[in-house]
Design a protein that fits this description.
heterodimer, A: alpha+beta, B: about 170 residues, mainly alpha, Rna Polymerase Sigma Factor, Chain: A, Arc Repressor Mutant, subunit A, 2 domains, about 0% strand
Chain lengths: ~200, ~170
């Protein structure tokens, strides 16, 4: 080990000694998670009502630019955004993200190592039906949260994607130009109505 | 093992890693809390995994990198004030050591988030490059290149004279 490596090692050891103490962080996490779960159950009930209501309304009036209730068609693509989830309130929120497209999953990459479970994120390849903005390639790959095991779905977060699933995806580029899908209503199961909203807002 | 037992046992080390990544006590707590929330939601499956630590570390590091990618992320300059200037006691030549240590800390703080994560995982947790690569979702060669560039930057900036003196 060279002197620079030794210095870094020593420095990190010194600084780590000044980290805050754990306290009751574990208990706080459990409390917060339970609160969020209750909130999600409540929101799902409201969303179901909204979905029925908006269907009834949309059959009678023309569409504005507000998007349908986020949770109604929202997919479980829980990227980091889900941790402090603020669903888009209008299609303009989608337009503010650097890219948005309509595509079908053709491959889900995995990089799990021996003795570990799947990675936090996986590269998901799409055959793009339509770019709303931010791209033009017929095939693109986006980093999305990986499943814990092939075919497994999130119990709490609802159904998730698999090869063949058609999605409306929006998000931001990350390091080295990789695209990262944003969850929390910004990446959703495809439906023609939402696609129309996204198209009108992004062009 | 239950979730709270896991947090009790591994939490302190997660917090130390988070602190080394964020350089801020409050951000470190937020980071650990966010990562553990994510883990808690999947605990019934995560707890059956062969290597829970690896999974949780991966969530922690990726949460940190996600934060740094967001526009709202800002380093807190005040965080530096909470860090020690040096762990060394006064000895002959100690002033030089304090300066070098302080300068090195400043340089490590200024590294790109991914480079800082690589150094923390490599030199604090002693993880091998393949494991670091799986945590970051990159290849081992990318980890080696990132570490090499970071160390070169630290070496060149911390001690430009010695570089000039080398053949």
């Amino acid at each position: 080990m060279n002197p620079t490596e030794s210095s870094v090692r020593e420095l990190l050891r010194e600084d780590a000694a000044h980290a805050p103490v754990m306290g009751d962080l574990g208990a706080r996490v459990v409390t917060r998670a339970r609160r969020q779960r209750r909130r999600r159950v409540g929101a799902a009930s409201v969303a179901a009502l909204l979905a029925v209501s908006s269907w009834a309304v949309s059959s009678q009036v023309s569409h504005g630019t507000d998007i349908p209730a986020a949770a109604a068609g929202s997919i479980a693509v829980p990227t980091s955004a889900m941790r402090d989830c603020q669903p888009p309130s209008s299609a303009a929120d989608i337009a503010r993200l650097p890219f948005a497209f309509d595509g079908t999953v053709t491959a889900i990459g995995r990089t799990s190592g021996a003795g570990t479970i799947g990675p936090e994120y996986a590269p998901v390849t799409f055959a793009v039906t339509e770019w709303f903005h931010g791209g033009s390639d017929p095939v693109t790959t986006v980093r999305m949260e990986a499943l814990l095991a092939p075919g497994e779905v999130y119990g709490e977060a609802g159904p998730t994607y698999e090869v063949g699933t058609r999605l409306l995806v929006s998000g931001t580029p990350g390091a080295a130009g990789a695209l990262w899908a944003q969850g929390c209503g910004y990446t959703r199961f495809y439906d023609p109505t939402t696609a129309t909203y996204w198209r009108s807002a992004t062009r | 093992m239950g979730f709270e037992d896991f947090v009790q046992q591994r939490g302190p080390q997660l917090l130390r890693v988070a602190y080394l990544l964020t350089r801020d006590a409050h951000l470190a707590e937020d980071l650990v809390q966010s990562a553990l929330l994510e883990v808690y939601r999947k605990w019934s499956r995560v707890s059956r995994a062969q290597n829970i630590d690896a999974y949780v570390r991966r969530v922690l590091v990726n949460t940190y990198l996600d934060w740094t990618r967001r526009r709202s992320w800002r380093e807190r300059p005040s965080a530096e004030a909470t860090l020690p200037t040096s762990g060394h006691v006064a000895e002959p030549g100690a002033d030089t050591t304090v300066l070098e240590s302080s300068r090195m800390r400043e340089l490590v703080t200024g590294l790109a988030p991914q480079a800082r994560a690589v150094l923390v995982l490599r030199y604090y947790l002693d993880l091998d490059d393949a494991t670091i690569a799986s945590h970051l979702g990159v290849t081992p060669s990318t980890v080696r290149a990132t570490a090499s560039r970071a160390l070169s930057t630290l070496r060149a900036t911390a001690n430009p004279l010695s570089l000039k003196e080398s053949p």
